[in-house]
C-alpha cells in the first residue's frame, strides 16, 4: 500500500481487497448467533476523551455450526457521536481524518480503520458507554478472479474498477500487463475494461469466464420473437405488478389477463439496478428469483450480472435486461411503474404468452431484425434455429 497517496484514493483502490477479506471472514464465521468481546488489559485511560492505545481484544463468534476465536485490536471508539482513534497506526497516514471527526459517514471511517492495519475485518462492539471499533486478526487466502467478483458485488455505478483491480493484483503479488482495453494478470486472468467516463473504467469481461455477449447471442432472436408476439397479440399492453404475490395484471386493447411476474431490475435517476440489490424491493416475492442472476454471475464470472448498479446508458447499450431471459427461462420482458413511481422491469409468464409453433412468416420476420454489432450474428441465428427447430 502506498502510504504517500491520499487516504481517500487508497481506500477507493482497496475496495475489492476489503470485499474479498470481508466475504472470506463471513464464510469463516457463518451465520453468527452471538459475538463476545473480551477487552484485555486496563482501560484506565478510557476517560475524559482519552483512550488506551492499541488495546488487545479477544473475539469469540458463535454460530449454529461452530465457535471461532480470534485476536484483535481496538482501533477507535465512537463516543458521544464523535470518532476517536485509539491506535498508533494512524501515525503513518498524515491526511487521515483525526479524532474530532464527526460520525456522519461511519462506513467510510470503518473502511479507513481496516485499511491502516492491512485490510483486516472490522467489527463494532459496545464497550461501556462507547462503541469500540475492533480489527480482527484474520488474513485469508484470496483467489484473484473470485475476489474481483466479490468486489463487483459492492461496486457503485460511478465507481472506477480498474484501480481496485490493479490494487488487488499488487496485494496478491501478481504482475499485470496492459493491452488496451485488456489487463492480463500473471495468474492467467484477463480483464476487459470499458471507459464509462474519463476517470471511470468498468469491468466488462473476465476470462476465464462467460462473456455476456455469448449469453445474448443465445437469447437474441428468441427474445426478439417473443417480444414481437407479445406486442402483436396484446397491443398497447400496460403491466401492474403485485410485488407481494409475484403476479402482474396485463391490460391491453381488448382484454386483460394475469401472469406470473419476476421483477428483475429497477430504473431511477439514470441508474440501472438489479432487483436483487434494490434495498426497497430485494426481499419481495416478485424479486426473489432475481437472486439467481447474481448467483449465475458469480458462478460463470459474468460481471454484468454481479455488479448491482450501472449507469442507465451503459445498461441499455449492453442490453442487460435481456441477460435475464435465458437464465431464468422466461421470455417476455415488460416495463411497469412501481408504487414509488420508479420504472420496474419484469419478466412475465402465462400460457397465453408462450410462442405458438413457428411459421415461415414469423421466422423470417424475426431473423430480419439485425442484432447489435458486438454479438456474432451467425451464432445468434444458429441458436435461434436450435431453439425453434427451424432451418436458418
Mean pLDDT comes to 93
Question: What's the number of helices?
Answer: 12
The strand count comes to 17
Share of residues in strands: 25-35%
Number of domains: 3
Oligomer: single chain
Order of helices and strands: HHEEEEHEEHHEEEEHEEEEHHEHHEEHH
Main sheet characteristics: 7 strands, antiparallel
Helix share of residues?
25-40%
Which structural class matches the secondary elements?
Answer: alpha+beta
| Radius of gyration from CA coordinates | 25 Å
Q: How would you describe what is shown here?
A:
With 392 residues, the protein is an alpha+beta fold. The protein folds into 3 domains: 7-136, no CATH class; 149-205, no CATH class; 212-388, no CATH class. It is 30% helix and 29% strand. It has helices spanning 7-13, 15-29, 106-116, 144-152, 162-171, 212-233, 291-300, 303-306, 312-317, 324-328, 360-367, 377-388, and strands spanning 32-39, 56-63, 67-79, 82-85, 122-127, 130-136, 176-179, 182-185, 190-197, 200-207, 238-242, 247-252, 255-268, 271-274, 309-311, 332-337, 343-349. Strands 11, 12, 13, 14, 15, 16 and 17 form a 7-stranded antiparallel β-sheet that branches. A hairpin with a 2-residue loop joins strand 9 and strand 10 (200-207). Helix 2 crosses helix 4 (144-152), helix 4 packs antiparallel against helix 5 (162-171) and helix 6 packs across helix 11 (360-367). It is elongated, with a radius of gyration of 25 Å. The mean pLDDT is 93.
Amino acid at each position: 500500500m502506498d502510504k504517500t497517496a491520499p487516504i481517500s484514493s487508497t481506500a477507493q483502490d482497496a475496495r475489492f481487497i476489503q470485499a474479498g477479506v470481508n466475504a472470506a471472514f463471513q464464510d469463516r464465521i457463518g451465520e453468527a448467533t452471538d459475538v463476545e468481546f473480551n477487552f484485555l488489559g486496563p482501560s484506565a485511560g478510557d476517560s475524559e476523551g482519552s483512550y488506551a492505545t492499541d488495546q488487545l481484544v479477544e473475539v469469540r463468534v458463535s454460530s449454529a455450526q461452530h465457535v471461532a476465536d480470534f485476536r484483535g485490536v481496538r482501533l477507535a471508539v465512537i463516543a458521544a457521536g464523535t470518532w476517536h482513534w485509539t491506535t498508533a497506526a494512524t501515525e503513518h497516514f498524515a491526511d487521515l481524518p483525526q479524532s474530532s471527526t464527526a460520525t456522519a459517514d461511519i462506513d467510510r471511517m470503518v473502511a479507513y480503520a481496516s485499511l491502516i492495519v492491512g485490510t483486516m475485518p472490522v467489527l463494532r462492539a459496545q464497550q461501556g458507554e462507547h462503541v469500540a471499533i475492533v480489527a480482527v486478526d484474520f488474513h485469508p487466502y484470496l483467489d484473484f478472479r473470485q475476489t474481483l467478483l466479490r468486489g463487483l458485488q459492492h461496486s457503485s455505478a460511478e465507481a472506477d474498477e480498474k484501480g481496485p483491480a490493479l490494487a488487488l493484483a499488487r496485494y496478491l503479488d501478481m504482475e499485470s500487463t496492459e493491452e488496451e482495453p485488456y489487463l492480463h494478470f500473471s495468474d492467467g486472468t484477463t480483464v476487459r475494461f470499458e471507459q464509462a467516463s474519463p476517470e471511470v473504467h468498468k469491468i466488462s469481461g473476465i476470462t476465464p469466464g462467460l462473456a455476456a455477449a455469448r449469453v445474448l447471442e443465445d437469447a437474441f432472436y428468441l427474445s426478439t420473437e417473443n417480444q414481437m408476439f407479445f406486442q402483436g397479440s396484446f397491443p398497447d399492453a400496460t403491466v401492474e405488478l403485485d410485488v407481494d404475490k409475484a403476479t402482474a395484471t396485463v391490460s391491453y386493447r381488448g382484454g386483460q389477463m394475469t401472469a406470473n411476474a419476476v421483477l428483475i431490475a429497477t430504473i431511477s435517476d439514470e441508474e440501472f439496478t438489479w432487483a436483487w440489490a434494490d434495498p426497497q424491493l430485494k426481499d419481495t416475492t416478485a424479486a426473489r428469483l432475481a437472486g439467481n442472476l447474481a448467483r449465475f454471475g458469480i458462478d460463470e464470472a459474468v460481471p454484468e450480472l454481479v455488479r448491482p448498479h450501472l449507469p442507465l446508458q451503459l445498461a441499455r447499450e449492453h442490453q442487460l435486461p435481456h441477460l435475464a431471459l435465458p437464465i431464468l427461462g422466461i421470455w417476455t420482458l415488460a416495463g411497469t411503474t412501481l408504487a414509488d413511481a420508479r420504472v420496474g422491469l419484469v419478466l412475465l409468464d402465462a400460457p397465453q404468452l408462450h410462442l405458438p409453433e413457428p411459421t415461415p412468416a414469423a421466422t423470417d420476420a424475426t431473423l430480419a431484425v439485425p442484432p447489435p454489432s458486438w454479438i456474432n450474428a451467425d451464432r445468434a441465428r444458429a441458436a435461434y434455429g436450435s431453439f425453434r427447430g427451424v432451418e436458418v
